[in-house]
Structures are given as structure tokens and as C-alpha cells.
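PT: before anyone asks, these are the final sequences, not the draft ones from last week. 650 residues across everything. Please model them as a single complex and drop the result in this thread when it's through.
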Amino acid sequence: MGIVRFIIRRLIFMVVLVIGVSILIFFMINAIGNPIEILLAERPGISPEVIESVKQYYRLDRSLTEQYLSWLGNVLHLNFGNSIVYNQPVGSMLVTWGWETVKIQVLAILISLALAIFIGVTAATRQYSKIDFGVMSTALLGRSLPGFFLGILLILTFSYWLGIFPSYGAYSTRSPLMGSALLDSLWHMVLPVMMLTYFNTATLTLLIRSNMVDVLRMDFIMAARASGLSAGRVVYRHALKNAFIPALTYLAILFGLMLGTAPVTETVFTWPGLGFLYITAIQQLDYPVIMGENLIITLMLVIANLLTDIAYVFIDPRIRLE
Amino acid sequence: MQDDLIRIEKMVKFYPVMRRGIFRSKQTGVIRAVDNVTFSIRRGETLGLVGESGCGKTTTARALLYLTAPTSGRAHFQGTDIIEVFERGAKEEILRIRRRLQYVFQDPYLSLNPRWSIAETVLEPFRVHRHLPENQWDDRLMELLELVGLEYYHAWRYPHEFSGGQRQRVGIARALAVEPRFLICDEPVSSLDVSVRAQILNLLIELQEKLGLTYLYISHDLSSVRFISDRVAVMYLGKIVEIAAVDELFARPLHHYTYALLTAIPIPEPDADRGHSVLKGEVPSAVNPPPGCRFHPRCEAALPQCREMPVELAPAGDEHLVACHNPR
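LR: through. Structure below.
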């Protein structure tokens, strides 16, 4: 089985890549500075002995290579260390904060996918019509608008002026809205999901539309119509699968880069997710958290790529993995 | 006239020419791709339709099958007005017509879905028409592949695993899947290697005899037209200029355009006298075709009235129609 060997080879490659990335990141953070000194810079007058003992407690007094190897050894035992700022185990932090990120990102990706297929196909089958121009310009706007700007507009409109949706956070701090924890959570998700959906949908729609337009010009589409297939079934049976492959790549990038777009969204909406955690961890040089987050980002990208390659095989019979 | 399978009457296909402004687009003219074309195809014969690229051959064929809606005109198949059926008929009625009229495309690299196996492609019409119970599909598939000279194990391969000639055989098998009476062959060999052209042409002739098919054979290659056709229609700039039996047309071309085309056929004989008529100039734009006879700016025998008086097909001998004020 070629596919099994392919996956095994890619997994081995993945381990090498993850270690390489973690080495790079580890030494780069250390080039910036020492977390203890940054934390203590705001409080002068603490004796050098105390500082030294804190460094010893966090084992920051050892050589960088030693520090890295001990981190790597712990990670193999699924121990990601403790956050210097929050003093909590990084592993469980990644899970709780990660859930908040995955929640809005996956929901947004799924909604965008459904919307993009529908809108992209509609526009492509009516090329150069008013609908098509409307779709194209709205999507181009979505491609070019800076993410935080739309977020601020959404907050301004729906929270400040209309007062419908909350402008920040994932949960109400006091009693939950509408008396239900689930509804409260969903209600908080609306604006961030809206923002993410718009950007994802914009790119996906443009991709699906332009590929669809190309495929619909092919003779085999006309052949299907000549055989009596109705216009709608021609589009969905013949054209969509052919037009979907480039969109699939982008979809994988969306999944892989989930944490890449998260910092902007989560900062705008003060969303307690990995993106928000990442930004604050970098600001405070919280090594264990930064290292843990990097591990996850790298893994997600590599896994998303692997899944895409495998999905290609099932969609396109011309592709053989080797 | 007595035994016409297909009759196309006053077929017209105009495409609007739009100029796009900032907010609105404006129609600035029309391309007269097919302009008032009338001809018929007899049961069991092959009618060759020749002309330069862009003269409206393919558009005529596609309008006939309603793959592009004609601007106006009628098309009759065994007495039924099929344009009327395609425009207003019930779904079953449309499918019944579609079953009888099929299309073989020019480029077998574009006409097969690259992500479908040959079996899926050839069986697609079965799914649409359901003219056979599903347990017979396999046998029929085997029959069809054998008919066009492919092997049964080819059924599970994909188009990219085949040569151009084999792909064209698949295209033909798909067209034959629904047991058509009439096949439009739109330049079926022009994108193939010269070495396999003869094989495909022979296959078409063999199938015609075996299945009693009627062909509309479209091509710009006169040698293949001469080889396969019973009668030939010559098209120029959206109009039919001459129709005659193949031998008659090649021996006694009446229209100056036909004559020019025939003298342009390469003769494998360096010293042969090939006449002197070589077409002058370019094909005029179909947006603003010349008034009168459309060929007059390039015609060496043009008379004053050719510039003004439109000319229609008129009988000029035994089963020979020509549209010319001053035939040869």
C-alpha cells in the first residue's frame, strides 16, 4: 500500500520538523531576554540572591542546551512545564484556552465552506451578471479589509449601537445571558465567528467561483448536457468536484493556520483563546507557554497538509502518492 | 426531401456584442454566427459541413441540439419540431429527443471528465435515461466498449491513461450509449494524430453501417470530408453557400468560395496544376458582415449586384444548390 508508506514517511518528517522548529524558537526567545529580569524590572530593590534563587527554581541558571533538552524530554512525557506568569501547567492551559479558539474557528470554517460553495457556484453559473459582480466585489472587499477593522465595525454596530451581542469575552462574568450557559456562550460567539466567516468565505468563494467558471467551459460539461442531464445536476455532479481541489488546499491552510489568525480576532474581542494567550505570553516572555503554542501550531500545519494530500487522492484519480 | 431525418429551417444564432462601461454594459452590435441556415440531412447519410474556423459550423450543430439556444429558427427530427420541444416540452419528451440525437466532441482531452473512470463516463447516460434495468448495464458497457474497439478492462481506467484516439473512442461510446439515430461529429479527428485519424474515420463508417446511423460530419479538413460524406454543405461566415453530393461538389464546384477551398487542398504532386484561385484577404468580421453576397470582397468574379443584392441558395442542377449571382 503506497498510501500507508507515504503517511509513515510524512510522520517521520513531521517529528524532525517539529523538533527543528522548537529549537529555532527556543534560541530565538532567549535572544530577546530573560523572563525573570523582565518580570522583576518593574520592581527594583529585590536582592540579587532572591533573583538567583528564582532562576534556580525555574532552572534558568543552566546552559541553554541543557534547558532545551530538559524541555524536550518533558514534552515526550507530555509534560509541557508550568507557565511562569500563570503558574499553571501549560498542558492543561493549552487544552482549556485551545477549546475556546477551536470553537469559534471550526464553526467559522464550516459556515464559510457551506456559504462559499453556494455563493461561488451561484456566481459562476451567472458569470458577468449583477449577482456575480456583487459577489466578486463583496469578496474582494473581504480579502483586502484588515481583520481588526471589520471586528471593530462589528462591535460598533452590534454591541455599541444596537446592543444585541456582547463585545468581549467568551462568557458573561456575572449571571449568564438568557439564564442558560449554552445560550450565553453561543451569544458571545456570534461576533467573532461573523468576522472570521467573512474573511474565510471571501477567499473560498473567489477560489470556487473562478475554478468553476473554468470547468464549466469544458466540453465534458456540454457532453453531460447533451446526454440530457439537467443544468443543476451537471453543476453539482460534474463541475463542483473538479472545481473544489484548489479550494481544498485553502481549506487545509485555514485549518492549519487557525492559530495564525487567532491573535488578531481574539485581541479584538478579548477572547480567552490560544491567540490571546500567545500574544500575552510573548509580551511577558512566558517560555513554556510560547514553546507549547509553537508545538501546537507546527503540528496543526503539518497535519493539515498531510490530510490534504490524502484527500487529493480520493478526489483526483490522476494523483498518486509516492 | 422525401426521407429527411433532420431538417433545419431558417436557423439563426446571434451573439450580442457588449461594451462594458463603468456601471452598465451596452449592446453595441451582434455577431451573426449563424444567419438563416436551412438544410436537411437524409436518413442514413453523412452530410459533411465544411468551412473555415469561426464560420458557424459548430454553432449550427450546437443550436440544433439546443446546447446553445438558437436566436430563432426551427429544427425537425422525424417531423417533430425539436426546438419547440427543448423550449417548452415536458422533461420526458426532451429526454426522448436527447436520446436520439447525440454529439461527438472535437477535443477528447476536454470532453471527458478527468476525474471519472471510463465506466462512469459511458454509464452516465444510463443514469439519466434509465432506458435499461441496472443489472444489464455491465453487459451493455462491455458491448459498447467492444463496439468502439476498446477492451473491457479499460472501463476502470481514467482518461489520462489513454491516447487521444482511445479517448475519442470513449467519446463515441458515450454518444452511442443511448442508441441514437443521429450523431453530430464535430471535427472528431482534427485534434488527433494523423496516424489514428483514418482509424477513427473507419470506425465511424463501420458504426454507421452496423447501427444505421445518420451523421452530420463537421470539419475544415476537406480530405476527410470527401472520405466520409455522401453530401457536402459549404459554409461561409454564417451562411451555407453550396450543397451538393460529394463527387459532384468536388468535380464541379459552382461557388467561387468552394472552388478556392478545393484548390487549397494540398496535392501530393509537385508539378500538378492546382489552379490559380487562392483566397485573397481575411474572413470579414461576423459583426459587420459585407452586404449583398458575404463573399464578394474576396471573390474574383464579383459582379456589381453582388455588392448589394443578398443571395439565397438556389437549385443549379441535379440536387445541387448554390448561393451565387455569378456561379462558375
